[in-house]
Amino acid sequence: MPDPAPTVEAMTRAGAVRGRWRGEPGAPGASAAFLGIPFAEPPVGELRFAPPEPARPWEGVRDALEHGPTPQRGDPGATIIPEPSVPGEATLNVDVFTPAPGPAGAGAGAEGLPVLVWFHGGGYVAGSPASPWYDGRTFNRDGVVTVNVSYRLGFDGFGWIEGAPANRGVLDWLLALEWVRDNVAAFGGDPGRVTVAGQSAGGGAVLTLLGMPRARGLFHRVWAASPAVADVSRDRAKALARRIGELGGIRPDLDGLRSLSEERVRQLQREALRAARGTRGGGAQLVADGLPIGPVVDGDLLPATTTSSLASGVGASVPLVLGTTDDEFSAAFRAAAGRLRWVPRKSALKRLGLAEPRRSAWLEANRGEGLHGTAAVLGRYVSDHVFRAPLVRTVAARELGATVAATDGAAPAATWAYRFSWRSPVSGAAVHCLDVPFLFDVLPEGHVPAVAGVRPPQGLADRLHADVVAFVRGADPAWPTAAGEAFPARLYGSTIATMPDAYASARPLAGV
Q: Which residues are catalytic?
């Protein structure tokens, strides 16, 4: 049998951890992985539904050779990303990937390497940091330390519980970033050059953090891919809690929820969300109500919605890149394409709440966009409503925030926006999550052909990944900054040689 890969140790504030090299130490492209390092105590027993408590110190050297337990249990099939679940209680952990383990200055440069902290997606109810698409070796190859964060999901992380702190999942994010600040130098990273990034709910997470006063100083740049910001109202969060209490026969307070098992709470959560959805499909519910579970505007940790916070100048000094794919939600309507082909487009859009004259304006704006059939039209509209219109509102909020910051004597940072438009031969569309293997430059990974075909364009991965690396290193994108509703932005498409660097105005958002 071949010899096992050599191990390597690093010293955190809580104790030593043992990781494993991938590749010969010191060779080009070699990367060390430290997996499942706890940043907090397991959120069980008295710590369930409590703020995260920093991990207690340990004696000796702790193995960090396997992915830690995940809050996701089983395979919910929430995304096209392979995201395995790992059983266990110590779910608040981080994975660290580094090309230069050891104290910064001993191989990583005097200040250490730039750091990318990745928050996975999954609608705040699913997802796993253990995905092979999130492996940090490609960023390590390019001189970036990568940290993946595991955080509480669903009702455990974000549900409203009388007697318990709100936004426990957000508190997990904050403690994980404090762990990065205090420990990443032991892995060759520079705590003064931290970029937070994520996709879908992870993209929403980093925008939430950007607009959160308490997160100030914990990171220095933000990259948000297909950000799904929740901004759940207190009334809506309390209504879901009451429904779960009714279904479970308990009071929706701390004692009542702790009397139920983790599996029972997840089951009640599913039943309550089904009841709230009624006869509407998932797309219709998103258009009408937004995400049902996620960060709650509680008036304390999150004093205002994300756009309101950004417009008030919070996070204005932090450079931001954000973007969407063209057809984020088209896959949700594909199964119904046969039934929907007999439904007129205007009638279908009316059922989603789009009234005249906005309905005709939106259809006209999307004429010639290759939308074949009512299912494709609905998918594009929900994509615009749920992802692209909020992106434009975020850009506008950042403009207002920059004005506030400048008035207060601060130096506001720029915002850049992009559009991922490459259409997979598998789906015929630029669907939600398709951009992730390009962003991480992992096209050879075994799960990619099922969503991107057998020969996805490596040149596109080279380009998108290189843009992320350059941004994390501190370089501003070489494309125009975003401004207002019609803004120039990078277009990530399929024909590299002829791809324009920018476009003057993306598809109009008329009617959204």
A: 200, 328, 432
